[in-house]
């Protein structure tokens, strides 16, 4: 049994406290990181929700404005058709008939001319002048659509270039004129300049990298703000995945990569009333989450600094705990060890002996005790001095320790020049064999410098067995008595108790 295993464990701090401290700190760091991550994720969702709400408000504003203006156009067309079919206006002067056909709504900004075409596409009434212009529009999409389709509803054309010198982009709103039998009589058409949408969209502050789009339900781009580098008005986007999803869902929002700009965008969209028009606001994800990203960087750096500081403080505290633990262990080692010989001291011997005594009582295994005394040590000490005496004791301790190798055995300094050995699970014969090894090894030691005779030892043995069943004090007394018997018999010998 080593000195450390024989000493009491209560005074020594266990490293378990250090492990608990590290575990607690790691759990705290994980908890902090989890909470911060949760809050950042929630803030990102809030940023997206706020952007979606803002985009929805923009979409609703555009919806209302576009729908109101289209309704004005439709009222003008309906009024034109109704007035053109009045019998009482056929014989009035051209000026009066012109006033009746075209109401004041046609003078609104961004509105082009309103025309009334016959069944061949020729102009028979023109809002721009009393005398209708010379022109035929039978090739226009709206005319061909009404010619082949009896649907009396309003038709919205694809964007087209005006035949006027400025060649500006326009779209047409038109209705079919039908006879009593449903025969095709002509078309009432009103043109709108697409610059109207440019002016409307330009008044909205949606961010530098975001866009507002007006698209027909069949995928034709009518207007976009900001203006793209290439001319995209009139381009067909019906095969784009994002447009197909917009048409499928009708109203709502989603995040996707723009096929036009190749960046991630938050799309919010809505159909304009019952019209074949769709308003799409595409907000750049970089702009939507710009503030959140700045906050994330600041919070992440602060959190990382906090966690590193916490772990650093934990390391410092663990180091202090470890140093204290080592110091206490060293103190406990010193308290259990004889300073001169390095063997266990008397206090450790008494604790180990009591521990092995109870263990022998439970197991029924024998327990032997050796009491060893240096022969004529007082005379040796007086003759050669204390330093030589101390050296002799250290040498004896080294020899004794070399022959006590089993984990459960213990060699100790009993006091002065006297030593003791505990031999667990060892009967009298085994104890005597070990005692003889020790005695002979001591006898064969080289002479101490200046001495004229070798150092020898006398050894007394006492063994407890279930047959003897004596007390622990009796075992010690018997070993001590056997030691003195060895001295009386001439020293340098081994004697076992009877």
From TrEMBL:
InterPro entries: dCache_1 (IPR033479), Diguanylate_Cyclase (IPR050469), GGDEF_dom (IPR000160), Nucleotide_cyclase (IPR029787), Rev_trsase/Diguanyl_cyclase (IPR043128). Pfam families: dCache_1, GGDEF. It catalyses: 2 GTP = 3',3'-c-di-GMP + 2 diphosphate. It is found in: Cell inner membrane; Cell membrane. Keywords: Cell membrane, Membrane, Transmembrane, Transmembrane helix. It comes from the Bacteria. The keyword S-adenosyl-L-methionine does not apply. GO terms for molecular function: diguanylate cyclase activity. The chain crosses the membrane at residues 20-41, 297-318. SMART domains: GGDEF. This is diguanylate cyclase. Residues 365-498 form the GGDEF domain.
